[in-house]
Specification:
299 residues; alpha+beta; 5-stranded antiparallel sheet; 22% helix
C-alpha cells in the first residue's frame, strides 16, 4: 500500500499553489520526525517530540470545492458545517478508521496482524474521536490502552508543562470552543510492517476534520473559520518482554494542524480559526520558517 499523501487528493489536482504549500509544510514536519526508539523503551521517550502546526487557511485540501471560490467567500451553513469542502465526502467519525484486510507480514501471521490492527484502531479512535478524551479531557481511556511503561511516560505530558508534545498523543478541544453536533470527518489508512527491532508495527496516517459551533453564526466568514483539521502520522508497535514493556507502544509521531486558532494550538489544544477574529481568511503563513511547536502561527 502506497503511503497516503494529502497532496495526491484529487481536489488538489488543479491547485498547484496548494500542492506546493503542502509539500513545504511536510518537508518542515519531517525534520521533526522521531525515527526510532532505543532498544529498551525509555520512560520519558515522548519528551522532545514536536508538533508542526501549519495554520495555512487556503492550502488545506478540504477547502477546495468544485467552484474553486476562495474559502473566505463561501457561505457557512450551521446545519451542514462541512458543506462546500471536500471533507464533506469523508467518512463519519470512527467509520473512517478502517482496518485493512490482514495478511502475513514477515514472521507474523495474518491472525497476529489482524489483532494488531484492531488494537491500533482502538487507540486511534480513542485518541482523536472519543468525546471523553476530545471534549472532556479524560485521558484515562487512552492511557489504559498502552503498555504500562509507556502509560506512565505519557501521563507526564499532560501535567501542564508539555502541552505541545501532548497534542501528538491526543486531541483535546480547547475549553473556549464548542464542537458542532456532527461527527468529525476522517480519512486515511493504516498498514502493518516489521519494525526496526523486528517487532510487529502498524503505521497510521489519518486526517481528522472537526466542525465547531460558533456563538455568532452570522459572523462566520466561511468554512475555514469553522472547520479545523488535524493530520497525524503515528507508528504503533506491539512489544513483548517484561510486564512493563509488553503491550502497545507509539514509537514515532508527527502531526500538522490547519485552519486553527494559533493561541490554542501553542497550548496543545484544538480550536477553530473563528475564535481568533484577528486572523483574516486566506492568510498563508510562512511555511519556509523553521518549525516550532506552533509552526506557521504568528509569534
Amino acid at each position: 500500500m502506497d503511503e497516503y499523501r494529502i497532496e495526491d487528493h484529487p481536489d488538489l489536482r488543479d491547485a498547484g499553489w496548494a500542492r506546493e504549500a503542502v509539500r513545504r509544510a511536510e518537508r518542515e514536519a519531517r525534520v521533526r520526525r522521531l525515527r526510532s526508539l532505543p532498544r529498551r523503551p525509555r520512560r520519558r521517550f515522548w519528551i522532545g517530540l514536536a508538533i508542526a502546526v501549519a495554520a495555512v487557511l487556503l492550502a488545506w485540501a478540504v477547502v477546495e470545492s468544485e467552484s474553486g471560490a476562495p474559502a473566505g467567500q463561501r457561505r457557512f451553513d450551521p446545519d451542514e458545517p462541512f458543506a462546500g469542502t471536500s471533507a464533506a465526502a469523508w467518512a463519519d467519525g470512527a467509520d473512517g478508521v478502517v482496518v485493512p484486510e490482514a495478511a502475513e507480514v514477515g514472521p507474523y501471521s495474518a491472525e497476529q496482524v489482524a489483532g494488531a490492527y484492531q488494537r491500533v484502531r482502538e487507540a486511534v479512535v480513542t485518541a482523536r474521536l472519543d468525546p471523553r478524551v476530545v471534549r472532556d479531557h479524560d485521558l484515562e481511556p487512552l492511557f489504559g490502552l498502552f503498555a504500562p511503561d509507556l502509560r506512565e511516560s505519557v501521563r507526564v505530558l499532560f501535567d501542564g508543562r508539555n502541552d505541545g508534545e501532548a497534542a501528538l498523543v491526543a486531541t483535546r478541544v480547547d475549553k473556549g470552543a464548542r464542537l458542532a453536533e456532527v461527527a468529525p470527518k476522517v480519512r486515511g489508512e493504516m498498514v502493518a510492517e516489521v519494525g526496526p527491532e523486528g517487532e510487529l508495527a502498524v503505521r497510521t496516517d489519518y486526517t481528522f476534520a472537526y466542525a465547531f459551533a460558533p456563538d455568532r453564526p452570522g459572523a462566520v466568514r466561511g468554512p475555514l473559520d469553522v472547520v479545523a483539521s488535524a493530520r497525524f502520522q503515528v507508528r504503533y508497535s506491539l512489544r513483548t518482554g517484561s510486564p512493563g514493556v509488553d503491550g502497545l507502544w507509539a514509537d514515532a509521531s508527527l502531526g500538522s494542524l490547519h485552519s486553527i486558532a494559533c493561541s490554542s494550538a501553542k497550548r496543545g489544544y484544538l480550536a477553530p480559526a473563528f475564535t481568533e477574529p484577528s486572523t483574516p481568511p486566506g492568510v498563508d503563513f510562512d511555511l519556509g520558517a523553521p518549525s516550532s511547536p506552533a509552526d506557521g502561527c504568528p509569534d
